[in-house]
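From the pipeline queue, job 12 of 40. The input is one protein chain; the requested action is below.

Action: predict structure.
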Amino acid sequence: MNKREQIQSVLLYGVFICYIFLLLKILFLSRVSIAELFDSHRTFVRSINLIPFRSISEFLSGSSANLARFAFGNVVGNILIFIPIGVYLSVLKSNKRVLTNLSMILVMTLLVEIIQGLAGIGTADIDDILLNSLGGWIGILVYKLLLFTLREEKKVHTVITVLSVIIGMPIIYYFIFMIKMRF
């Protein structure tokens, strides 16, 4: 591995690690802080939806403008936050098979929802699993499209690294440092 590839690898893994921290914050610590998470006097609010598309249809059928904005943010947000997972899995794993990566994303999102439900730190929702998996699948498709277009895996790695540093890092830092984060 030459010097340029080493730097590229460090940058890519660095952005990926920062993204994972942001994802953990969004998924597990957006409603409670770490201190509250382990507080024995904390009130647990558990909500579980096992009916596919139920919460999505409830959001979309809501009449108020605030509910419509929340619904849009929830649906789009659940898709967007997992697109990078699909891209990074495709780039960083040696096994590039779509089905394998999609299965890993599905398992990850299932674990997230189980943890949220058991810990009482969010809503465990089958729709979140579907939307997060859709986002991961879109990320895998982005990787495959870049590979088809550029025809060389090294070029794809370079493009993804550059985009991660130029676009990904400012977004990650904005959410971690500029928006009130509860740690």
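Job complete. Strands lie at 45-49, 121-125.
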